[in-house]
Amino acid sequence: MPLRVVVAGASGVVGRALLPQLRERGHHVTALARRADRLEELPADEVVAADLLEPDALRIQLRRCAPDVVIDESSAFGTADPQEALRRTAKLRERGGKNLLDAAVAAGARRFIAQGMTAAYRAHGHDVLDEESPLWVDAPGTWGDLVRAVASMEEELFTRSGIEGVSLRYGALYGPDTQYAPGGDVHARVVGSELPLVGDGVGLTSFTHVDDAAGVILELLEGGDPGAYNVVDNEPAESCEWLPAYARMAGAPAPVSLTLDQAKSQLDWLTVHQLTEQRGATNFRLRETLGWKPTWPSWREGFAALFGLWPA
Q1: Which CATH architecture has domain 4-175+207-233+281-295?
Q2: Does residue 40 carry a pLDDT above 80?
Q3: Known PANTHER family for this protein (predicted)?
């Protein structure tokens, strides 16, 4: 049955993949974007300039749209300065997300789908983590601020009466227009030999292609229980595995190797953590409860497609 769907953060990488698929399925789509200069680009039934940090205006807009489902894909990860990106995204998760949730409830929406992240899990041994694993709410610095904002938003989402709350915990998002695409931040760092192998390179990353992120949203518009879902591929990868493979496919130099002490003196804390300690996540809940299968089951094929090395 066609639904009225509002997508916040519609100009982001997941939003751009999602909007045309929603319309192909016959849903009425309202795209929210903060910047008015991006509105004409968006394939939606209507586009609205809206700031998630302005609750009164947001409530008016959602009441007018009368949505069945509200989707929050907002972030500031496109911001050039990494620390500022973390700070702004934490603010969007903590304040903006709750403002949007308040407006969705007031407008009578039945379901709210938020964006989480598997990188927020507390690293523990060599485990691949599921949705019951604790979030790292006492993590240091601006990263900790972001994890606490995500945890606070999820708690609000799962306990709010009058609406069904779903949090999609993405892995590292890759695909067109992401940091891993040519011209993106990760691509630039790898090409410039600025992203090294550190120590044994045992930090695990779970990857999520933007097509799979969008596809799961389509599945959960009406179906599936409320709660958290890890949206990741089938193959968590250690940095010693995915980073050299990515460099080869990108035509970049092989990554240099640093000891842990060298890395700590040359790199930011979060990069070192991701390369050496971070844990991956399992998509078992999605597969078992929805019968979901990722379009890109492994980052290997996904990276290859990103660089034109995989058949279309």
Answers
A1: 3-Layer(aba) Sandwich (3.40)
A2: no
A3: NAD(P)-BINDING DOMAIN-CONTAINING PROTEIN-RELATED (PTHR48079:SF6), PROTEIN YEEZ (PTHR48079)
